[in-house]
Amino acid sequence: MKKIATILALSASFSLFAGTTAELILKGLVAPILDISIAMETVAGNLNLSQAASSIKVATLTEKSNSRTGYKVKAKSTNGGKLVNTLDVTSFVQYSLTYNGTNVPLNTSPSQVATSNQRGTFTRDLRISYNQPSNLSAGSHEDTVQFTIEAN
Fold first, then answer.
1. What residues pair up with 115 in beta bridges, in sequence order?
2. What is the pTM of this model?
């Protein structure tokens, strides 16, 4: 009987410490998004290098970010802004590329193309221009432009 009285006394004392309010703290997490992709136009792989071109849309760049500080886009060109013959490096076409109307620096190391302080998904047109080349060797002329996205 003494044990029962002790248990009742202990349980009564615990209820004396119970409050009249209680709090539930809820937390959530949103994973960071920094994503960039390119949808190439058919013409990008079949440029007519025997004549000049002006502002031909070659791709659409899609950027996604939820960074609170915004993001920046950088670009680099394998051949420094030249479409180079795959078998004859002396045969090339110098070209310019625009990103949403702004010139893209076509360096062999990454250069900043744009910066944004917004969150969301955005699409940008990529357009190529070049003068009529002369004395080109027959064959495929290529360059690779790599775009990257990073948080500010």
1. 72
2. 0.80
